[in-house]
């Protein structure tokens, strides 16, 4: 198996394992919410003034998919739409109190998952971690370039 295939297999295995380890807690504490809903709530919570285009570009989905998701989240009183006084054309989204509860629960779970793995990251030679992060950044940029070429 060449290095690229090894890398992709390792990444796939890593994602599968973290999903397996985190699935039960996420299902218990965020029961009734789909992963895409939670990730959209997380994005809106982390990005004030999020609109459909910003969310779609960041999550690599269509604007139509975001519109459908935001309608569902508004219907469930997790987010609300608003307009700025100086820009009545653009629609933005923000979390409601219920949405903030989901956001905070998800953030707390993420902190628990990070704590679970913290020892590995502190015990590993930091130059190895830095090199891995640099490679992942370069690979992400490569994929972004391909995505942008297709637009």
UniProtKB/TrEMBL annotation:
Keywords for this protein: DNA-binding, Transcription, Transcription regulation
SUPFAM superfamilies reported in the protein's UniProt record: Winged helix' DNA-binding domain
InterPro entries to which the protein is assigned, alphabetical: HTH_MarR-typ, Metal_resp_HTH_trans_reg, WH-like_DNA-bd_sf, WH_DNA-bd_sf
An annotated Gene Ontology molecular function: DNA-binding transcription factor activity
Keyword Transcription: yes
Pfam families recorded: MarR
HTH marR-type domain: residues covered: 1-138
Gene3D superfamilies reported for this sequence: Winged helix-like DNA-binding domain superfamily/Winged helix DNA-binding domain
Domain of life: Bacteria
Annotated protein name in UniProt: MarR family transcriptional regulator
Species for this entry: Secundilactobacillus paracollinoides
């Amino acid at each position: 198996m060449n290095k690229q295939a090894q890398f992709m297999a390792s990444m796939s295995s890593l994602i599968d394992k973290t999903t397996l380890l985190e699935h039960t807690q996420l299902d218990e504490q965020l029961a009734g919410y789909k992963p895409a809903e939670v990730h959209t709530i997380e994005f809106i919570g982390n990005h004030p003034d999020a609109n459909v285009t910003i969310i779609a570009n960041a999550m690599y989905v269509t604007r139509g998919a975001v519109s459908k998701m935001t309608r569902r989240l508004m219907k469930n009183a997790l987010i609300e739409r608003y307009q700025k006084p100086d820009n009545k054309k653009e629609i933005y989204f923000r979390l409601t109190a219920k949405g903030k509860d989901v956001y905070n629960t998800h953030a707390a779970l993420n902190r628990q998952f990070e704590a679970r793995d913290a020892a590995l990251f502190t015990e590993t030679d930091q130059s190895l971690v830095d090199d891995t992060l640099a490679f992942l950044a370069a690979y992400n940029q490569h994929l972004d370039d391909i995505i942008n070429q297709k637009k």
